[in-house]
Predict the structure of Sporulation initiation factor Spo0A C-terminal domain-containing protein.
Amino acid sequence: MPYSETLAVIADADEQGARQALSALETLRIPAKRVLNGIAALRAVEELTPDILLLNASLPPCDGAWLADRVYKSALLVHPAVLISRVPGLRLPGEEELLERGAALLDRPLRLEALQQALAETDVAVRRTSGRIRRRLEELLGRLDLPEHDGRDYLGFAVLMAYQDGRLNNQLTKKLYPMVAERFGVSAKKVETAMRYAIELAWKNGRIEEQYGIFRGTIDAQRGKPTCGEMIAQLSDILRLEEVRV
């Protein structure tokens, strides 16, 4: 995670816990804003689009698990890495689902080493997405008749990254393609070329009605098929908006 470009929101009504979190983030040179309850935290996540949400499991007025669930089910431009601090041994409501969605659990009092490890595990480049989101993406790629090809794999990973952080749709060559390239051990140029080839095959051999159903009027009529960027943006937007209805 490029800490120099990262923003955190700390949701913690406990003064000592909040000071520990602020101190640890300051050591990592990550600017942070503190809020005192779940409602203010939701507002901050929507308005500030932070990369990190570090919250207390005992956060009022409900609890940290409730807040994390609300964040995961919001159509956010940026899905922050969710880190939940708790009293050691405390069992959270819906803990299995939170972990499956990619949340990280930290014991209180917060230790710098534990925070660094949690940030590494929830970085957008490696962040887990729920099985439901991954299955939905595979369904969309299948409906578009994208062939079993490297380009399909690259597209799938790029869509999941853009789903987590919508800002990447405007940073394709600078950030997104290099992230995909690093993940698969290839060059960014190969990523773009392979994705474009997969899209060309799909639009040449695929079902027009399915392609229209997914893209409708968003494709340039003269060109006839989406660019790599249009494909990534449209599919990540579909995943983001559908998450709200779960």
Q: What stands out?
A: The chain has eleven helices and five strands.
